[in-house]
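Tokens in:
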């Protein structure tokens, strides 16, 4: 009996309890938390990983289904899962910041479209960077590393002792600045060339005030930006690999210690 006259199979209740942490991580994490991923697929993945967790770690769920201790335990499980996924989501915000910096200088700030990852409008250049980062994340087996972290989290933060300390929550908040640093470094090669172009255009405007810079500056910025992206994209791809590895390492250290 689990309270209020309800009864449920102990194995099923343990699986549902484990799926709280796993499902929270999948909701907050990139790729798994995309709008295009159907809800039944997320539930099925959470159940599959939950079966894996129960086969590795002996998880004892709360005795009563409706009770204050149960609600607190469920909230603690959800907090751990959200923390793991949120750290990865922070790193995936770096391409959007880089696209804002590059697109604003190139004159592509007005090019907006619906992002299939989150269902909101975002710069078209940012979607291109996000797709590349997602493909690199999958090619580096980031989704498998995420599942491994979720399974190992039951050893580092077992149910009933899953509340993370204030120092870990503070470290996760401080890690939010990494998105701005990574976005700036990702946009640095193209941004530097566009800055040099703006300096040249500024000197031309001072030397020839009658020149129509609106007719010359915008096409020139767009052309230089496209060429700079084509030249610097291999280096940007290498740094995207660094972003993926740093995010996975940070999730492992900040959450699991």
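Residues out:
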């Amino acid at each position: 009996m689990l309270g209020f006259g309800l009864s449920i199979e102990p194995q099923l209740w343990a699986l549902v309890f484990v799926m709280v942490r796993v499902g929270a991580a999948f909701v907050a994490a990139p790729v798994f938390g995309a709008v295009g991923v159907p809800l039944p697929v997320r539930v099925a993945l959470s159940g599959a990983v939950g079966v894996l967790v129960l086969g590795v770690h002996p998880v004892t769920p709360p005795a009563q289904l409706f009770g204050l201790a149960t609600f607190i335990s469920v909230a603690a499980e959800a907090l751990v899962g959200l923390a793991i996924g949120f750290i990865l989501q922070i790193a995936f915000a770096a391409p959007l910041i880089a696209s804002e910096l590059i697109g604003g200088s190139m004159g592509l700030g007005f090019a907006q479209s619906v992002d299939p990852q989150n269902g909101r409008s975002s710069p078209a250049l940012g979607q291109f960077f996000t797709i590349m980062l997602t493909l690199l994340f999958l090619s580096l087996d980031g989704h498998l590393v995420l599942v491994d972290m979720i399974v190992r989290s039951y050893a580092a933060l077992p149910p009933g002792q899953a509340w993370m300390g204030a120092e870990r929550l503070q470290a996760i908040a401080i890690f939010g600045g990494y998105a701005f640093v990574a976005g700036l470094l990702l946009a640095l090669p193209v941004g530097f060339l566009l800055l040099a172009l703006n300096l040249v255009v500024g000197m031309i405007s001072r030397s020839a005030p009658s020149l129509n810079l609106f007719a010359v500056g915008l096409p020139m910025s767009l052309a230089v930006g496209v060429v700079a992206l084509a030249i610097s994209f291999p280096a940007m791809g290498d740094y995207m690999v660094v972003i993926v590895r740093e995010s996975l390492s940070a999730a492992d250290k900040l959450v699991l210690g």
